[in-house]
Structure to design on (165 residues):
C-alpha cells in the first residue's frame, strides 16, 4: 500500500491520462470489459488496505437513503428528523449528505467506522469497482480516481491490460 503522499504524487502525474483513457473507454467499450474488471478487482483488493487511507470518509460524503437514515437513527435511538438535524444536510439535488467532512462516524485515530455494521449503502459499495455494466459507472471512476487508491489501481491496471492485450 502506498503512503498518502506517494498516492497523491502518482495521481498528480497520471490522473489526466487515466481520465482520458476512461473517456475513450466510455465512448468505445471493449468486449469482455465487465469480466476483465472483475478479475482486476480481485488483484486490487489484495494490495489495498482501506484502514491505511480512509480518504473516502475524510474527504467525501455518502448519500443517505431513507432506509439508511431510519436504520442509523434507530441505532442511536433518535428519530430520522433528529438525525437529519444533527448530522445531515439536504443538497439542491434532493440528496441527504453529511453536514461536515470528515464523516462524523469515522474514528480519526483508527480510520474505523463507528457504525460499520449499519453504515450507509453508499459506503458499503464504495468505490464501485466492478459493476455489471462498467460503462454505466465510468463517470463514478472519473470522480473517485483521485480520491481512492483502489480506483486508481483498477483504472491503471485496466489501461495496462488493454494496451498490452
Amino acid at each position: 500500500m502506498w503512503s498518502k503522499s506517494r498516492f497523491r504524487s502518482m495521481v498528480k502525474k497520471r490522473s489526466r491520462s487515466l481520465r482520458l483513457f476512461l473517456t475513450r473507454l466510455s465512448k468505445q467499450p471493449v468486449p469482455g470489459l465487465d469480466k476483465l474488471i472483475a478479475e482486476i478487482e480481485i488483484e486490487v483488493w489484495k494490495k489495498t488496505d482501506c484502514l491505511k487511507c480512509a480518504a473516502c470518509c475524510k474527504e467525501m460524503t455518502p448519500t443517505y437513503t431513507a432506509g439508511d437514515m431510519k436504520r442509523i437513527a434507530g441505532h442511536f435511538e433518535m428519530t430520522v428528523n433528529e438525525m437529519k438535524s444533527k448530522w445531515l444536510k439536504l443538497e439542491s439535488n434532493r440528496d441527504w449528505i453529511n453536514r461536515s467532512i470528515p464523516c462524523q462516524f469515522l474514528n480519526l485515530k483508527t480510520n474505523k467506522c463507528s457504525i460499520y455494521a449499519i453504515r450507509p449503502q453508499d459506503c458499503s459499495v464504495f468505490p464501485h469497482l466492478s459493476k455489471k455494466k462498467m460503462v454505466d459507472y465510468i463517470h463514478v471512476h472519473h470522480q473517485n480516481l483521485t480520491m481512492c487508491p483502489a480506483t486508481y489501481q483498477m483504472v491503471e491496471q485496466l489501461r495496462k491490460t488493454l494496451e498490452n492485450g
User: Anything to note?
Assistant: The chain has eight helices and five strands. The chain has two domains: 32-60+126-165, 63-125. The mean pLDDT is 93.
